[in-house]
Amino acid sequence: MLLDTRYLILDTKILNTMITITDKAKDKIDHLMQDSAMGSDYFLRVSVKGGGCSGLSYNLDFDNEEQKGDQFFEDKGIKIALDMKSFLYLAGTELDFTDGLNGKGFNFVNPNASRTCGCGESFSV
Fold first, then answer.
1. So where are the chain's domains?
2. CATH T-level fold of 16-124
3. β-bridge pairing 93-100 and 103-109
4. Sign, CA torsion 76/38/46/59
5. Residue 46: φ, ψ to 5°
6. Lowest-confidence pick of 21-30, 63-72, 116-125
7. Which Pfam families match (predicted)?
8. Which of 18, 39, 43, 109 has the fewest Cβ atoms within 10 Å of its own Cβ atom?
9. Bridge-partner residues for 109, per DSSP?
């Protein structure tokens, strides 16, 4: 039984640090939610789908309906949902937002990606 308790503690630590959000990404997410008049029941859904030039691509959306198998995390007050497949690819990922001359949009800093495409929207492991 003691071993199970340690695993639960480890799982809790992983869940609390699964995806982190930079201050710029938080500000942009808050702005988008306010502009769309989304209530506090909405959260950010992050997922990984097949496709893109490197094999897998990132997807961001807002949602207010929990789906079976969702894993929930929170960073800087932003609630994040991941499906189980995406959960496996995104451990330790940081979500950032860039609005510079070289491009504008959300960027993923994924330590699990062995290769990314030039635009940063797809990756492989």
1. 16-124
2. Hypothetical Protein Aq_1857; Chain: A; (2.60.300)
3. antiparallel
4. negative
5. -110, 130
6. 116-125
7. Fe-S_biosyn
8. 39
9. 94
